[in-house]
Design a protein that fits this description.
Blueprint lengths: L1 H4 L21 E6 L9 H13 L7 E5 L7 E6 L11 H16 L5 E5 L4 H4 L7 H15 L13 H21 L7 H11 L5 E6 L6 H7 L9 E8 L12 E7 L25 H16 L4 E4 L8 E6 L4 H6 L3 E6 L1 H6 L1 H10 L4 E6 L2 H5 L27 H10 L13 E6 L16 H8 L1 H4 L8
Parallel strand pairs: 1-3, 1-4, 7-8, 7-9, 9-12, 10-11
Antiparallel strand pairs: 2-3, 5-6, 6-8, 10-12
Helix pairs in contact: 3-5, 5-6, 6-9, 9-15, 12-15
Length: 468
């Protein structure tokens, strides 16, 4: 089978050095805000000054220079630009790293040395994403994104921060492997085989067929598939609380559901006009959940329980899906739409996720559920209880990424667990249709970094909290 021939290769393990002129590297990639910030890097500074004197626009974008002080003679400088504008965020750092490493690869570098210069803006602003540990991690993750290719892997001793970045990248790698691959290479059956190789203790994995009684809507979608493309329901569970004695009140009970449609044909409502071209990416929600479990597998956080059943008190429910084109029309490319029910809204779940993602360059916008979203799925017909798709108004679907959340709440029975009920349940939905990455191109793995930033990194290192 195709999956049997696939090679499971770990992400590149970074090599750490304090020697800027080490012979082990064949290029230096400098990520910096301004030329003046690089004055402490003596072997590079003269070259940078000379370039800035002949190019008035040198302090922007990416440049390749010949630096005779380096053994490789190759210097790539990638500028973040000034970071003190209202519109600036962590993406300035991650994108500069991605562009810099990509440029190094283009000029033939196989062992680039990533160098993050001091960010002078950090001294006068108190943005959480400019804290040294956060910006360093963001820079490493940006570099890893550029290095996601099937290529030679090398290994070495790594420091804490780079090791942490590698673990996060391993989760992103799993999400990209699954989410970006075609529906043959990553059919439902092949995804199960892939996960069985990737996920080990303490993650528990159970593979189930699509049970019509338990998953009626999934069964409707699955009924037209031939045997080779039959759907699977994968249950994953992680319980870090068993590793040590922890106060039960400190344990976060997280319940994740990821949409994993390997190729969305649209069913009987055909996707015409070329819309089906990217539908193998409709599994990116499930791919992100799988990638998050890969990180749990590696870092083993103790204060987190990620469960497959609502058998614990106060669970946090989260669905992740490449759901609607409307979220892109509403917020633009690269942004996730977050929608909370009442109990989650009261806890500030949407703002917590938004802040957590912003630290590492995953950007989210917050939408609000309104009564019109519930009304859009009501029906007066005697033949049906609920409309699964809101009716068009003037040929267009209004509130197109909010109302599907209302449908999921009603269809799942969560409407019996709202604010005014005996057992309210906090439920958040993330629509990643516009933030899962370009196609063709490399998937982003969103919202893996958001989940890691909120639930894992605070236990691993000093990590910023949202200021309320």
């Amino acid at each position: 089978s195709i999956v049997a021939a696939m090679t499971h290769r770990e992400s590149i393990r970074p090599v750490v050095t304090s020697d800027l002129c080490s012979q082990d590297f064949d290029s230096v990639v400098l990520v910096v805000e301004d030329v003046s910030d690089a004055s402490s890097f003596t072997p590079l500074f003269e070259t940078l000054q000379e370039a800035s004197q002949v190019n008035q626009k040198f302090s922007s974008d990416v440049h390749t220079l010949t630096c005779r002080s380096l053994p490789s003679k190759r210097l790539v400088v990638s500028f973040t630009g000034h970071l003190d504008q209202d519109i600036d965020d962590a993406r300035r750092i991650t994108e500069a790293s991605t562009k810099g490493i990509s440029q190094a690869i283009k000029i033939g570098s196989k062992r680039p040395l990533l160098l993050l210069g001091p960010l002078k803006t950090a001294k006068k602003l108190e943005h959480s994403w400019l804290e040294p540990s956060v910006s360093c991690l963001a820079s490493l993750l940006g570099a890893f994104h550029a290095l996601y290719v099937v290529s030679l892997r090398y290994f070495s001793k790594i420091t804490f921060t780079t090791g942490l970045a590698w673990c996060l990248e391993e989760g992103l790698r799993v999400a990209r492997d699954i989410g970006g691959s075609d529906p043959e290479r990553m059919s439902a059956k092949n995804i199960v085989t892939y996960l069985q190789k990737e996920l080990t203790e303490p993650v528990q994995m159970t593979d189930c067929p699509v049970d019509r009684g338990l998953y009626p809507l999934a069964a409707i979608v699955d009924r037209g598939n031939n045997e080779r493309h039959r759907g699977h329901v994968v249950h994953l569970e992680y319980d870090g609380s068993t590793q040590s004695q922890i106060d039960p009140q400190q344990i976060v009970n997280l319940f994740l559901v990821g949409k994993g449609v390997t190729y969305d044909t649209g069913g009987s409502d055909l996707k015409v006009g070329g819309i089906m071209a990217t539908m193998h990416r409709d599994k990116c929600g499930a791919a992100a959940v799988a990638g998050f479990f890969k990180i749990l597998n590696l870092l083993k956080p103790k204060n987190l329980k990620v469960i497959i059943a609502l058998k614990v008190s106060n669970p946090r429910l989260l669905t992740i899906a490449t759901l609607t084109g409307h979220v892109g029309l509403c917020y633009g490319l690269g942004y996730t739409g977050i929608v909370c029910n009442g109990p989650a809204k009261e806890l500030g779940e949407d703002y917590d996720y938004q802040f957590a993602g912003s630290l590492l360059g995953e950007m989210h916008e917050i939408s609000t559920l309104r009564r019109e979203d519930y009304d859009a799925h009501k029906t007066d017909e005697e033949y049906s209880d609920l409309l699964n798709s809101a009716r068009l108004i003037g040929g267009k679907r209004s509130r197109g990424h909010q109302s599907p959340v209302a449908f999921m709440i009603i269809a799942s029975g969560l409407d019996s667990h709202l604010k005014n009920t005996e057992k309210p349940l906090a439920y958040t939905h993330m629509d990643i249709a516009s933030s899962n990455g370009p196609c063709p191109g490399i998937p982003t793995g969103t919202p893996i970094l958001t989940l890691a930033s909120r639930y894992i990194l605070p236990e691993q290192m000093k990590w910023p909290n949202r200021k309320v």
